[in-house]
Structure formats: C-alpha cells, structure tokens
Design goal:
The protein is an alpha+beta fold. Helix content is 59%, strand content 11%. This is Transcriptional regulator.
C-alpha cells in the first residue's frame, strides 16, 4: 500500500469529501488530489497535519505501507526515518539473537554427539570376569596346622570316609561379573573363607544408556537449531520484501 492509497482509505472511512478535507487541512484540493494519487509527497508539516486531522500517530499512518515505498519516498520526514531505523535495529537485534540461540543449539548438539561417539563420559565396552569357584587352598593349609588331616577333610568336604584332599580345592560354584571397568586380564577377590580368581573376557560393545541419551539430545538440538535457522532465514526474506 502507498501513502496515497492510505489517505484515500482514511478519508473515505471518515466520511470527508475531498474539498471538505482540503479546507480542513488548509491546502488546495488539487494538492490533496495529488497526495491521494501519489503524484506528490507531503512535506513534514503537511504529514503532521494529516496525522492530526485523522487523529492517528505517524506509526499508524505508515504501518500498512510497503516498506520499500516508505524507504524511498518518506524518509525525509524525521519521525518516520527515526521510527523506521528503530524498527530495523530492533528486528536486526532479534534476528541476531535467534541466530545465536540456534547456533548454540547446533554447537551443543555436536558436543553431545562427539561425547557419545568418543565415549568420553561412558564406555560402550563390557568385560565379563568369570570365576570357576571359591578356592579354599589357603584355609586348608591353615587348618592342617591346627587340626588333624581327617578333621580338616571333614570340615571342607563333609566326607567322613576319605582322608585325602582332591587336587582341585575349589568349590563348584562358578560366578561371573559383567562390568565396564577393565580390571586386567585376571584379578583375585578375597572372601571371608577362601578367594575367587576371575579371568577376563571382552564382550561385544553395547551402547550405554548415558551415550544413548547424549545421542537423543544431539539429534533433538541439531533439529531445533537447523529448523530455527531455516525459519529465521525465511522470515527475513519475507520481511525484506514487505
């Protein structure tokens, strides 16, 4: 919309004829006709009179006008120039803030992705440590120092008729531990009675819950950031053509 079209619309809505309104403004009807048909541009004084006569602010007068038209035809009016520049700076600031927020989302998404991919906070590797049973060898030796061989045999085997220990002094109670912590190829765990010797076996990698959460957040934030930049660019193009 041009200023001439806006002036015709306002006069029509107010119910003024062209001669009546020209007289109210104190200008020639021919000059008002030129203004309403965009054959002339109002001076600062006439623009103020138009706003006063229609009881509207300068912002209301130009808010429906084409932005390129305002920049090309009406920037000689200080109040319009100031308002236009102020709006431009506000819009520029909002666009800058939106770009910073979206870029931050993308940066955090990349950080989350590499945290999960490089296993910086949680490893995907798993180890199984397996023990064949509890070894009582030390306890048997200690028992033999204090009691008879048969008494010790009965204590550890429950058999009253044998008096010799088997070669394997482990109880047949296997146990396995699955952990993400590597404890070496083997380690010994002392118990109240006996000890267990565990041997390592690496299991197939399984992505940890923490890394899954990092990847989900990475995808979510990356999507938000990219969509935000696309929407902002679209609004910028639309705003520029208005």
């Amino acid at each position: 919309m041009t200023l001439g079209e806006k002036l015709r619309s306002l006069r029509s809505t107010s119910g003024w004829t062209q001669p009546e309104f020209a007289k109210k403004l104190g200008i020639e009807q021919s000059y008002l006709s030129k203004l309403e048909n965009d054959r002339s541009i109002p001076s600062v004084e006439i623009f103020d009179k138009l706003c006063t006569a229609y009881e509207i602010t300068p912002d209301d007068m130009i808010k429906d006008l084409d932005k390129d038209y305002v920049r090309q035809k009406l920037m000689h009016i200080p109040i319009i120039a100031n308002a236009t520049n102020s709006k431009h700076e506000v819009a520029k600031g909002k666009r800058k803030a939106a770009v910073i927020v979206c870029s931050t989302f993308i940066l955090v998404a990349v950080l989350f992705f590499f945290t999960a991919y490089l296993e910086l906070l949680s490893s995907n590797k798993q180890w199984e440590y397996r023990s064949l049973g509890i070894d009582f060898k030390h306890e048997i030796n200690q028992c033999l120092k204090k009691q008879s061989r048969k008494e010790c045999y009965i204590k550890f085997t429950g058999n009253f008729f044998e008096n010799s220990f088997p070669t394997n002094t482990r109880s047949q109670h296997p146990e396995s531990i699955i952990t993400k912590e590597y404890k070496g190829e083997a380690f010994i765990k002392k118990l109240d009675k006996g000890f267990r010797e565990y041997h390592a076996k690496q299991l197939e990698d399984k992505r940890s819950t923490a890394n899954n959460i990092f990847l989900i957040f990475a995808v979510f934030l990356m999507t938000l950031g990219i969509l935000g930049l696309i929407v902002e660019a679209r609004f910028y193009r639309i705003d520029k053509t208005r």
